[in-house]
Amino acid sequence: MREIIEIPLDKVKPHRTDVLRTQGVTPGKDTSHNVEKPLRKAIELFLEYAHPVGVLGDIPLPQFEDVYKGDGKNETSTPLDEIFKKAEALALFAVTIGEEISQKISQLFKKNELVLGSMLDGAASVGVDNTADFIENHFLTMLIKRGAATSATAVLRYSPGYCGWHMSGQKKLFTYLKPEDIGISLLDSFLMRPLKSISGVLIAGPREIHVFEDSYPFCAECKTHSCRERIEALFKESRYNNRV
Ligand code: SF4
C-alpha cells in the first residue's frame, strides 16, 4: 500500500527547547531577550511557511534488499544489514516541509538577518524531524490496526547517507517510492530538494532488533553518536504516547 499523508502543522511544530539546542543554547537556562525574540519569531515563521507532507509505501523484504544494495557502494558491514532482516514490516518513506521555508531562510540571510535566519533554519530542521517522527508513528498505528504489530513493536527510521548506507541508495528509493508526487526531487549529488526533506526506510519489529554497538569502523568518524539516544528512547514508555 502507498499513501500520501498531509500532516497537520500543529503535530510537527518545533518545541522551543529543541530549537534552542540547534543554536547551541542549553535547554533550561534562562534565555535573554536577544534569544527569546528571534526564537518566538522563528516559530511564528515556521507556522507560516512550513507545509508538512509525507509519502509512505510498504515494501517486501526482497525488494528492500535490492533498494538497500543500491549501486553497491554501502560499507561492508552496517547496522542496517542485520536489522532489516529481522523486521516484521518495512516501508519506504519521504517527508518534506516544502520549499517555501528554505526560500524564507535564504531571504533572511541575504538581508543579513543572521540570528533570525539561523533560528528559522534550526526550527525547520526540528520541524522536518518531527514530520518524520509523525510518519514513524503513523506507520506503527497502521500496523496495529492491521493486527500486524503490538505495543511491544518499535518502528525506527534509517536513511541513505548515514551509518554505512551510501547516499547513492537514494536513486533506487526514489524509483520505488516516487517522492516527486509530494514535490521532492533528487539532485545529482543525491541531496533532495526541498532541502528540508528526509527519506529512508521504516523498520518495524521487536525493540531489541534495533539495538547494536556503535563499534563499526565508520563510527570512529561520527560526531554525534545519535544512535545511542535513539536506542535509549526506544525503551522509554512515552515514545508512542501520541499515536495518530
Ligand atoms: S556511532 Fe554514528 S555512524 Fe555509528 S551507528 Fe551510531 S550514529 Fe551511525
CATH architecture: 3-Layer(aba) Sandwich
* SSE string, helices as H and strands as E: EHHEHHEHHEHEEEH
Radius of gyration: 18 Å
Helical percent range?
40-55%
The number of helices is: 8
Strand order in the sheet with the most strands: 1-2-3-7-4
What value does the average pLDDT take? 93
CATH topology: NADH Oxidase
Q: In short, what is this structure?
A:
With 244 residues, this protein is α+β, with helices and mostly antiparallel strands. It has helices at residues 16-22, 33-49, 61-69, 79-83, 100-110, 114-146, 169-177, 226-234; strands at residues 2-6, 53-58, 89-96, 153-158, 185-186, 192-193, 197-206. The protein has a single domain, classed as NADH Oxidase.
